[in-house]
């Protein structure tokens, strides 16, 4: 059993690769290293450096493969507003290229890395898979289109698929792999503290217990294991739901993250406070009941453990 992980040199992809190998599943990685890091790919894992728009390279990478975990893409929602054509090319056109190659090679199983971004700014504080998608960026729209592509290709062929809608992915399951995104809260805090600077909280007047916004954070190692469970289920012929939310169902406030950072690092700091950013919801968490039922999904890390693993992996030199 061998699976191709697209984007396998990225933060999430590298964890998925490790989870598959730990479960005894061979892996091939394809990544153009536009945001991934070659050193994140473990020794001994076949690595194809190519973009999914390169159909020839994709077909070669699919040789002997039983399924695909598709994580590759342009993931920055805010920047996607400024670069919509680039976002659609990397997230939609490239996925079409991948699905064409899979059909040609008779690879019939795929787990798609979707996003909570498909929901936009939901009115309901608890998001279920029945919550109506309302993406507010080209990034979120491209992920929703990706789900549609899978639905339509499955109707036309023997494709077996599921899409995992992640919320805020944090932490590290390997001290050599870290989140380098300049837009995510954990790396922002780690970077500022490493430089001796103080993080900032945007918005302290939300209708939440401590006045700061509450979001759903999931540990990347738990997330990676969900991909393995989905792959095993598809490989066994089990019919999965078309989409699954991966979230804790509870949520953590920004101030609680700051408190955890202070406890974990031993750096005594008081975050500065600023006004809310436009569009920031006060509380959004995911109902993960379906994933718990079908994928044995659960968030197993406390907030301190989440930040501790992120801090351990963060490069401080």
From TrEMBL:
Pathway: Carbohydrate metabolism; galactose metabolism. The keyword Translocase does not apply. GO terms for molecular function: UDP-glucose 4-epimerase activity. Residues 3-247 form the NAD-dependent epimerase/dehydratase domain. InterPro entries: Epimerase_deHydtase, NAD(P)-bd_dom_sf, UDP_G4E. It catalyses: UDP-alpha-D-glucose = UDP-alpha-D-galactose. It is an enzyme of class 5 (isomerase). The keyword Metal-binding does not apply. Keywords: Carbohydrate metabolism, Isomerase, NAD. SUPFAM superfamilies: NAD(P)-binding Rossmann-fold domains (SSF51735). One of its GO terms (biological process) is galactose catabolic process via UDP-galactose, Leloir pathway. Its cofactor is NAD(+). Its EC number is 5.1.3.2. Belongs to the NAD(P)-dependent epimerase/dehydratase family. This is UDP-glucose 4-epimerase. The gene is galE.
């Amino acid at each position: 059993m061998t699976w191709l992980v697209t984007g396998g040199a990225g933060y999430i992809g590298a964890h998925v690769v490790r989870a598959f190998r730990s479960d005894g599943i061979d892996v091939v990685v394809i990544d153009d290293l536009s945001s991934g890091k070659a050193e994140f790919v473990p020794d001994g894992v076949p690595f194809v450096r190519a973009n999914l728009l390169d159909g020839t390279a994709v077909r070669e990478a699919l040789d002997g493969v039983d399924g695909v975990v598709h994580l590759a893409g342009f993931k920055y929602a805010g920047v996607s507003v400024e670069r919509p054509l680039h976002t659609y090319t990397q997230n939609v056109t490239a996925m079409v290229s991948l699905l064409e190659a899979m059909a040609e090679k008779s690879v019939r199983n795929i787990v798609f890395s979707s996003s909570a971004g498909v929901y936009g700014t939901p009115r309901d504080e608890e998001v279920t898979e029945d919550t109506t998608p309302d993406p507010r960026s080209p990034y979120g729209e491209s992920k929703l289109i990706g789900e549609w592509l899978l639905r339509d290709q499955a109707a036309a062929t023997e494709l077996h698929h599921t899409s995992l809608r992640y919320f805020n992915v944090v932490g590290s399951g390997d001290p050599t792999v870290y989140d380098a995104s300049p837009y995510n809260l954990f790396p922002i805090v780690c970077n500022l503290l490493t430089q001796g600077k103080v993080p900032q909280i945007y918005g302290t007047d939300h209708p939440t217990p401590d006045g700061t916004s509450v979001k759903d954070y999931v540990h990347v190692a738990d997330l990676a294991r969900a991909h393995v469970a989905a792959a095993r289920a598809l490989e066994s012929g089990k019919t999965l739901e078309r989409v699954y939310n991966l979230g804790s169902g509870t949520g953590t406030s920004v101030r609680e993250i700051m408190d955890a950072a202070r406890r974990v690092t031993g750096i005594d700091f008081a975050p500065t406070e600023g006004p809310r950013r436009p569009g920031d919801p006060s509380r959004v968490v995911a109902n993960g009941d379906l994933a718990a039922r079908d994928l044995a999904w659960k968030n197993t890390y406390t907030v301190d453990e989440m930040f501790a693993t992120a801090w351990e992996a963060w490069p401080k030199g």
